Amino acid sequence: MKSKKRIVLAYSGGLDTSIILKWLQEKYNAEVICYTADIGQEINKKKIISNAKKLGVKNIIINDLKNIFIKDYVFPMLRSHAVYEGVYLLGTSIARPLIAKDQIRVAKKYKAYAVSHGSTGKGNDQVRFELGYHYFGPKIKIIAPWRIWKLKSRTDLISYAKKNAILIPKDKKGAPPFSVDDNLFHTSTEGKVLENPKNSAPEFIFQRTSSPEKAPNKSTYVSINFRNGDPIGINGKKLRPAKLLEKLNQLAGKNGIGRVDLVENRFLGIKSRGVYETPGGTLLIHAHRAIESVTLDKDTMHQKEKIMPRYAELIYNGYWFSNERFKLQKIVDLKKKKVNGTVKLKLYKGNITIVSRQTKSSAYSLKKVSFEENKTFNKSNVEKFINFHKKKLRT
Hints:
Helix content is about 40%, strand content about 20%. It has helices at about 15-30, 45-55, 65-80, 95-110, 125-135, 145-150, 155-165, 240-255, 280-295, 300-315, 325-330, 365-370, 380-390; strands spanning about 5-10, 30-40, 60-65, 115, 140-145, 180, 185-190, 220-225, 230-235, 235-240, 260-265, 270-275, 340-350, 350-360. It is elongated, with a radius of gyration of 24 Å.
């Protein structure tokens, strides 16, 4: 008996991907392999396995990628200080390339002819997933149900689920739910009342940050230790990447740090409104800027500032595995080995204050900057410097 062809589905265990799972089985008469990347999101492994088995799935793969995600994706991005449109720290964007890469690895292992995802036809994620799929498996077919099936609304999905005995969570009945994406780096919330930008975000949607009003009345202090441009410890204690970010998430979240309410320009040209929580990441980008300020020279820092908007846009648009991003990363990391030391932060009711920067680097010279008279800085050259730039005003 000839075995069925195989499809690897990016599966969360929720309603939408369960419907996609059943639909793939019916439309393609295929064996579906369920793939879940554990990158620190709120995850119920028992539910994922149970829901998939109810639909006849034999191969259910859940891979723990948390440390890889933070070390090889989040940290390189943080070294660039990437921020999209002034405020977004790219928490969803940076996760998709890793998921796509590992999903293709699984597809190759099981000799699947296709991969599938549950991203909608208006969003950015379909682009990010599919560019990643193409990079690592250009000959593997991509199935994007939301672009080809006849289910056009939430009502259609509910009807399909009832027809096929797929469990419908209570909050999925009636109005569409908030769309939530989370991982160890961030949580994003979209939809419902948030779709109208005149509406304020209800407090109950925030999952990992306290409101500044309810944050502790006493300041919290934390020191972040850096080596070769990456955070390696907290308060002098060395931690693995995932554990380090988890600890910073707790500290920052408790102090109301890391909230962003943004109307962004999607890659496909649609504007969308989202609320993001990136507590630990917000601490890290502040601390990284602070340690670079005393370890890197002016030209290197300014060159990084020039390329940052483009670097951020490449990540947002799904171009993590592009030659252009690789080239920019080399510029970002050119002098990362000089970025060593400790930054102490004060956290208080949504605010971050740099308390101190400690490093053995010679980039910052106390002798040159001192107001006391010294011989290390030749002030007689300043007039020549100014005269040179006077001429440039009219060139």
